[in-house]
Design a protein that fits this description.
With 239 residues, this protein is of the alpha/beta class. The protein contains 11 helices and 12 strands. α1 runs parallel beside α3.
């Protein structure tokens, strides 16, 4: 299982939210460059980055900064937030980003996912963000009538190989990931599953590794110090 330390960008700053609520924004690092360097120093190979302004405004907002931080870090990077058309997909993938995450587009514009997968294959990841099992979009503001398993199966059917799953009620809470929903998802589709939301301590990493998911995104736990990134990476390398 790979560990993906996370950098969420809002107004150019490295921040965290609580349960996806933009009113709870908190700056957690001096700069995204310093945070990314810290991840690299701890032995990370991947990094997960999100343009929070982009997710809310449905367009690329912090894309130049994200691409620059990614390049400076030397890490493999996946990016989400505000990617709503092929032009946005191409922007990131032509600037050294390894994978882009389509979230709201997967709910509202399945044709974009189909076109992007056809063009870029496994470099296209779908983000499924759910509250009480129902998918949300547009920076988690919009409700949908789609169950997370149903959307995952649709995405699998159009060729998506990797899904980032977030239980919104766990995100930023340090209350542990939703192992039950992740376990169901991992058994319902053959896609690689990246778990996001709730990771707090090393035991959470071990629990996720035992579910045999592909990856785990860690954000707030690293910044608060409740999870030692280097130790987490070392443990997953042994499992």
């Amino acid at each position: 299982m790979i560990i993906l330390p996370a950098i969420d960008i809002k107004d150019g700053n490295c921040v965290r939210l609580f349960k996806g609520d933009y009113a709870t924004v908190q700056k957690v690092a001096e700069s995204p460059y310093i945070a990314a360097q810290g991840f690299a120093d701890a032995g990370a190979e991947w990094m997960h980055m999100v343009d929070l302004d982009g997710a809310k405004d449905a367009k690329l907002v912090n894309a130049d900064l994200i691409a620059d931080v990614a390049k400076a870090s030397g890490l493999s990077v996946e990016v989400g937030g505000g990617i709503r058309d092929m032009k946005a997909v191409e922007y990131y993938l032509s600037r050294g980003i390894n994978r882009v995450i389509l979230g709201s587009a997967a709910v509202k514009n399945q044709q974009l996912v189909i076109d992007a997968v056809k063009e870029y294959g496994e470099r296209i990841v779908v983000g499924i963000d759910a509250k009480d099992g129902m998918v949300r979009a547009e920076g988690w503001i919009d409700n949908s009538e789609i169950n997370y398993i149903e959307l995952a199966k649709r995405m699998e059917n159009v060729g998506v190989k990797t899904i980032v799953f977030t239980d919104i009620d766990q995100d930023g809470t340090l209350a542990g990931p939703n192992l039950k929903q992740l376990d169901v998802l991992a058994h319902e589709v053959s896609c690689n599953i990246i778990a996001s939301g709730g990771v707090a301590v090393l035991k959470d990493i071990v629990n996720l590794a035992e579910l045999d998911v592909y990856g785990a995104i860690c954000g707030k736990a690293i910044y608060t110090g409740s999870l030692d990134l280097k130790q987490a990476i070392e443990v997953t390398n042994k499992i």
